[in-house]
Design brief:
With 266 residues, this protein is an alpha/beta fold. It folds into two domains: 188 residues, P-loop containing nucleotide triphosphate hydrolases (Rossmann fold); 66 residues, no CATH class. The chain contains ten helices and ten strands. A six-stranded mixed β-sheet has the order 6-7-8-3-9-10, sandwiched between helices. Helix 3 packs parallel to helix 5.
Length: 266
């Protein structure tokens, strides 16, 4: 195993002092790797990201047990601005731009933690990854398509020079061809910028195509972990997350959303 950038050790998260969402979650993220978190809605994936990025407190949440080690330093329950300055940048679900700013003004917001350092080279880098933004750079973000907005928020995160990039549902609501392009660029960013990425994604098939390693979450716990290839080949993952039965026949979500967890997952 290579150098570990992030280590979650048996963390529990509670909201409003009474609602426990994460129950002893442990995971490791190797430097320069893409790690995917898989699971159904409500499994605790987004809460895991927010525990890492410090965004629990605004929602009255808190890590009550365990530790979160980043580069060997415990960042559990630190302020989000402190965590951001350490190089951890989260791209929230839902593509949330400043809609009354232009594309380029939105991108420049990503440099806020860099205290006035030059950014033109970073803009060129973002436009190289997302050429669709070049012609739209003077357009208000509020008038952009969903695909353009997803490119924008990932590009804005890149402007902050992330060491660890947290992506929450980047394919949500996008057309298949746009999803393929977004994931192609995510993989390219990982390879060329040596960015470590944690990817939360409902589209398990696409996530496992770009990831090195994956964790399966259910009811606030890690139920399974393996390399991306091992997860892709696992019959349970094929059936319940990739929609494929052992026969190779595609199954609908209605067919697979209720299942009994197999004992070997535990």
């Amino acid at each position: 195993m290579g150098e570990i950038l992030l280590q979650l050790n048996n963390i529990s998260v509670v909201y409003s002092d009474v609602i426990q969402v994460l129950k002893g979650v442990s995971l490791s993220v190797e430097k320069n790797h893409i790690v995917s978190l898989l699971g159904s809605n409500g499994a605790g994936k987004t809460t895991t990201l927010k525990a890492i990025s410090g965004l629990l407190k605004p929602e009255n949440g808190e890590v009550t047990e365990g530790t979160i080690l980043y580069n060997g330093v415990n960042i559990q329950n630190q302020a989000p601005e402190f965590i951001t300055r350490q190089g951890i940048i989260q791209v929230l679900e839902g593509r949330q731009p400043f809609k009354y700013l232009t594309i380029e003004e939105n991108l420049r917001v990503g440099t806020a933690t860099r205290f006035g350092k030059p950014y033109k080279q970073d803009l060129e880098l973002v436009y190289n990854y997302f050429p669709a933004l070049v012609q739209r750079r003077k357009s208000l973000a509020g008038y952009c398509s969903g695909g353009e907005l997803q490119m924008l928020v990932i590009g804005r995160a890149l402007m902050a020079h992330p060491q660890l990039l947290l992506l929450d549902e980047p394919s949500l609501g996008l057309a298949p061809l746009v999803v393929q392009e977004i994931f192609r660029i995510i993989k390219k960013i990982n390879e060329e910028q040596e960015a470590t990425i944690i990817l939360v994604e409902q589209n398990a098939r696409m996530a496992l195509q770009v990831a090195h390693y994956g964790y399966v979450m259910e009811n606030g716990k890690i139920m399974m972990e393996a390399t991306a290839k091992e997860l892709s080949d696992n019959p349970d993952i094929k059936e319940f997350y990739l929609g494929m039965a052992a026969s190779g026949i595609a199954k609908s979500y209605k067919d697979v959303k209720s299942y009994r967890r197999r004992k070997r997952w535990l």
